[in-house]
Structure formats: structure tokens, C-alpha cells
Amino acid sequence: MRNAAYPYMMDIANRFTASLSLAGRANTKMIIVQRAEAPGTLRLNFSVGRMLSMRRSAVGAAYLAATSEQERAELMEQLRREAPESWPSVRAYLDEAKAMYQEHGYVLNLRRYHPDINAVGVPLIAPNGWTIMATNCGGPSSAMTVERLTGPIAQAMFGLAATLRTML
């Protein structure tokens, strides 16, 4: 799937001068399985195999927003135990992300993972509902405005999710 996803991801990256990740769950982390970056984009140290925080990343919030209530409750408890000192703000973000996903089909991550990065995250849910992955699109907050993320970029990400979910 990761190889089949790359051309679709690269198309969006080039269209919006952005970076995209496709990730799956690994305990309370999200592991990047594919990455696409437009030339000239702000580059973070993200590459295939990199583990991202579920509690701070757009892919993590998207995954948590789409999972079953039982799995979400178990993961939220694990996340609380991992970082009890930051749990109130983490829980507020993840609850907000779930509400956003339920209303719009995406989650926003505005400068939460990195102070200069904004991103939109969209879950990929297999047709049988058994497998969930997530993808995100982001870049410098100066270019990745809320209007772009929630408008044309979100629409492109919905198309990507619809294409990729059939491969799960």
C-alpha cells in the first residue's frame, strides 16, 4: 500500500507545496509508513519509520478520533499514564479533535507538534472497519492557514483517504 499511496500523496504535496505522512498505530505512537514532500517545503526530521506522538500529532489525533470508543478509552488511559503532568491539555486537544472529526471529517493540528507547523489529519478506515490508519498534510503555519487546511487541502485529503482506504 505504501508504494501505491506515494504518487497520490506526492500530487497533493506538489499542489499545495506541503508535506504528507501516512501512518499506522504502534502502541501509543504513530509510525510513518510513507512520506511525500514538495521541493522547497520546510523539512522536519520526519521519514519513513519515524515514530510520532499520538497525543501531539495530526495523524495521532485523526486515528484516535476514528477508533472505537473502547479502543479510544484504552488508548486515552495509556496516554494519561505516559504523561500525567500534561494530560489536561492533551485530553482537551484530543477531545476537540474528536469533535472536529465528527463534524468535519478531519482534525487540525495548529502549532501543537511544532511551533511553526500547521497540519490537517484525516483517518483512513478500511471498508470492513477493522483497520485504521491516518494521513496528514502540513507545512509552515504562514502558508498553511486554517482557511487552506479546511478548504482545498481538506478536500484533497478526503480524496486521498477515499482512494487509499480501498487498499487497507
Helix content: 40-55%
Helical element count? 5
Mean pLDDT: 94
Described by strand count, sense and barrel closure, the largest sheet is: 6 strands, antiparallel
**Distance, first to last CA:** 7 Å
Into which percentage range does the β-strand content fall? 25-35%
**Roughly how many Å is the radius of gyration?**
15 Å
* pLDDT < 50 runs, ≥5 residues: none
Order of helices and strands: HEEEHHHEEEH
- Count every beta strand, where a strand is a DSSP E run of 2 or more residues: 6
Strand order of the largest sheet: 3-2-1-6-5-4
The SS-based structural class is: alpha+beta
Global geometry: globular
Structural features, described:
The protein has 168 residues and is an alpha+beta fold. The protein contains five helices and six strands. The chain has a six-stranded antiparallel beta sheet. Helix 1 runs antiparallel to helix 5 and helix 2 packs across helix 4. The longest helix is centred in the last third of the chain and has 20 residues. The chain is globular, with a radius of gyration of 15 Å. The N and C termini lie close together (7 Å). The model has no long low-confidence stretch (mean pLDDT 94).
